Structure to design on (578 residues):
């Protein structure tokens, strides 16, 4: 099941990427697009649109989806909770808070939204892990994460209330968009994906063990708390990198692992790659729809992921005898 | 020969020091029932052995070696464990679930997994999802996972809770057979009748203190049951076992 599924997901993603390259206000046919990509044909403006606007955006959205899908599977294992997503330990609220603080302090121009968000999200995750370090059960971690999320949301609302003129900017950023994607982002996302996916894929047996009750996992030889933190930190930082550049794009990190588990089972050896590929495909499809649905302008991609993803997700959950795996 | 020795152990959950200067020895090839009221320290004692809780004083020796100096994986290769929380929401196959017992060994350990499943009579369930198994079948899978660890010491925390009498009997029979094969079994049991029928030795705990430890028939007395559980008990003669058993006296008011 896994190999055909992986092949199907890769083929579908490549086909969708090719179609997505042709879609947009400047009508460029598939033939022209292939010509531009392979032989450098087409007018200079069309080459610019394909190579400098659409291609980096498509790759960036695919890589972000892959990171969120992969990290979602890690979070659900490490927290032994099917409701967990990569934002549950404060990555999103920390990023938004970081941006709001930078705006309030007038640092947004020098620091930039991405760096402010990255600092905010990483600091928040580390703070939550440190806060629950004494009694690091999954429940303590989750509840600490939820509590800090509330505090940061309240603080961000307060900061926005005090800086009303900046409210629109933060709101639009937080809804998520790949419209600013560049090759620099592509390189950063690629490195983040490799840095998190390679070592954690090798730890697939430890991730399986995290799904057991803590007593059993410990007695079977896993140092539960150490492994849990060791997998959560890189997955959180990779997610923070996505959020910092492109905003908070919900639901993919929750849905991709569930859909993949439904098809290939709960073993992480089989799960991690399909989960990444599903995340990638869902994000690319959502971003493409976000680009083309309005006659002018764009929809926030986070709106699409939820509107399209939730009905599909509920259908899949109701269809089979699926529990979590 | 003693396979497991507690030497002046201090320890417990959090700030609560349940065990103060606890010394115990478990002989190889015995089946010890750990009994006592809720909160007496039965599960905590097991957690000290597989190091979910670290002893705050004293030494636990496993086959002569101090467990504090052993890695978690070293320990897992010598001790099989059956938890009291074994429901699963993740759809592993039975064979995949049993193969988790090989985590500390590395590799799939296909032969050890097959042998463990054979010993627990669940080879036919290898490809069945554990989310679809009955409670008795799932408990056999968890026991097979413990056997796949290939330790000679088995720790079981209330392994027959929630099982019907037929499945209780088959699990307890299996534990007896394993004892006869040389395994050392330490099993938390709430059912005092099962403890009397199946175990060779019994430890009766109360508030972290060992009230009695010895051959099972010598541990169960009317006075001890009254002291530890605050219940009346009476003796009956079991014609099948051809020996007396203590029953808690229940009266309807």
């Amino acid at each position: 099941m896994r190999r055909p599924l992986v092949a199907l997901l890769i083929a579908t993603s490549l086909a969708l990427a090719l179609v997505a390259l042709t879609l947009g206000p400047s009508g460029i046919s598939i033939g022209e697009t292939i010509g531009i990509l392979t032989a450098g044909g087409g007018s200079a403006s069309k080459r610019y649109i394909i190579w400098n606007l659409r291609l980096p955006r498509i790759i960036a959205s695919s890589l972000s989806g892959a990171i969120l899908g992969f990290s979602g599977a890690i979070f659900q294992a490490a927290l032994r909770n099917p409701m967990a997503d990569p934002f549950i330990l404060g990555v999103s609220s920390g990023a938004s808070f970081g941006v709001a603080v930078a705006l309030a302090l007038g640092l947004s121009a020098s620091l930039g939204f991405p760096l402010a968000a990255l600092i905010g999200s990483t600091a928040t995750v580390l703070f939550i892990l440190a806060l629950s370090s004494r009694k690091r059960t999954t429940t303590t971690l989750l509840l600490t994460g939820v509590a800090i999320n509330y505090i940061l949301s309240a603080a961000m609302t307060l900061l926005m209330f005090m800086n009303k003129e900046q409210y629109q900017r933060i709101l639009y950023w937080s809804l998520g968009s790949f419209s600013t994607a560049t090759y620099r982002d592509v390189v950063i996302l690629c490195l983040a994906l490799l840095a998190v996916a390679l070592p954690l894929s090798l730890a697939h047996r430890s991730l399986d063990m995290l799904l057991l009750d803590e007593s059993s996992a410990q007695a079977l030889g896993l140092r539960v708390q150490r492994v849990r933190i060791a997998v959560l930190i890189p997955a959180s930082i990779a997610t923070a990198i996505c959020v910092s550049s492109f905003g908070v794009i919900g639901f993919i990190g929750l849905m991709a692992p569930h859909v993949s588990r439904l098809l290939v089972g709960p073993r992480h050896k089989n799960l991690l790659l399909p989960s990444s590929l599903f995340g990638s495909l869902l994000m690319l499809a959502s971003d493409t729809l976000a680009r083309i649905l309005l006659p002018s302008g764009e929809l926030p991609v986070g709106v699409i992921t939820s509107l399209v993803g939730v009905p599909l997700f509920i259908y899949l959950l109701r269809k089979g005898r699926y529990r979590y795996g | 020969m003693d396979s497991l020795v507690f030497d002046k152990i201090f320890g417990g959950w959090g700030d609560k020091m349940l065990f103060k200067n606890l010394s115990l020895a478990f002989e190889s090839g015995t089946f010890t029932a750990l009994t006592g009221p809720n909160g007496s320290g039965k599960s905590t004692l097991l957690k000290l052995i597989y190091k979910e809780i670290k002893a705050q004083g004293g030494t636990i020796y496993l086959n002569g070696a101090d467990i504090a100096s052993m890695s978690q994986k070293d320990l897992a290769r010598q001790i099989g464990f059956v938890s009291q929380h074994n429901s699963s929401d993740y759809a592993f196959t039975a064979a995949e679930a049993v193969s988790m017992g090989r985590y500390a060994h590395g590799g799939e350990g296909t032969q050890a997994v097959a042998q463990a499943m054979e010993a627990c009579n669940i080879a036919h369930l290898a490809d069945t999802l554990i989310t679809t198994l009955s409670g008795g079948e799932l408990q056999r899978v968890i026991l097979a996972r413990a056997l796949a660890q290939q330790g000679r010491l088995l720790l079981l925390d209330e392994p027959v809770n929630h099982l019907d009498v037929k499945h209780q009997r088959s699990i307890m029979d299996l534990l007896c057979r394993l004892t006869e094969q040389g395994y050392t079994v330490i099993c938390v049991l709430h059912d005092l009748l099962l403890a009397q029928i199946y175990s060779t030795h019994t430890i009766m705990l109360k508030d972290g203190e060992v009230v009695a430890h010895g051959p099972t028939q010598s541990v169960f007395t009317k006075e001890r049951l009254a002291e530890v559980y605050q219940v009346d008990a009476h003796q009956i003669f079991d014609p099948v076992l051809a020996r007396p058993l203590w029953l808690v006296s229940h009266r309807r008011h």
